[in-house]
Amino acid sequence: MNLSVLANDIVINPNGPFGQFLEFLYIFIIGSFLGYLAEVLFRRFVSMKRWINPGFLKGPCLPLYGFGLGTLHLISTNTFKNLCDVNTIPDYYHALAIDGGSGTLPFWAVSLIAILFIAVGMTLIEYIAGLIFVKGLHIRLWDYSNLKGNIQGIICPLFSFIWLIAGVIYLFGISPALANAIDFMIARLWGMTFLLGGYFSIFCLDFINSLILSIKLSGSAKKLNITVDFEKFKILQIKDVKSSRINAMVENLKKSTQPLNDKISKMSHEIKRHMYIGNKIPEKSSAEKDETPRTKSRENSEKF
Question: Is 20 found in the same domain as 72?
Fold first, then answer.
């Protein structure tokens, strides 16, 4: 991949540490955002049938997918560069700049190897991330316990197969386009650097706030010796927020309509007052003791 660019007096070496670092950051941002969209849609239309913010952070970012896409990129580029015979590489793959590879295997064989590495690599990343949260923080971000062949509810054959399919889609559909997108970003170094700084500033704040919440939640979970399902916890939070908002709306409605209710009550009182002799409404306690013609006649008859 040709990442060399001249920005005033700064030259970025695509194979140097800074060039590789920038490339990984761009891939991390793209993967985190696209993974977030995929998880939102998956929960809405497949698993939970509702809109919910997935993952550990509050913002539209899933770091697991950022690292995952970075892993996909590293596996594909290095596998083809080191194993593939350049004479068997299709034209559309030249965007990955793997023409200088020294391998001897045909393109189709290296493709199979890369897809297998991707499935194993993504499953391993998912397992490590799951262990960190489940064993370290007693928080479960996803749960495969109901699926066959699962290991600790963190990984399972079904989702390993899904990662394999994702590897196929990435290799033959996304990787050349991603290479061109990174070239576009590197060519606009200063603007993209500003974007990177802003993005990761927000990311760090979001990460710190979410980490504080997770630590508090983890402390409670450890005391109770349980593992908290983070998705269910979020759903309960949403219900609590909705309930508090509804209560606040009711209170605000009562306050806003109170002057009108007072006027109506006052008018009703005035109308009732004019229905009584002397324009005075008798109190309920005194009304029970007052004598009426009926009680008087009954008391008089009892005397006789």
Answer: yes
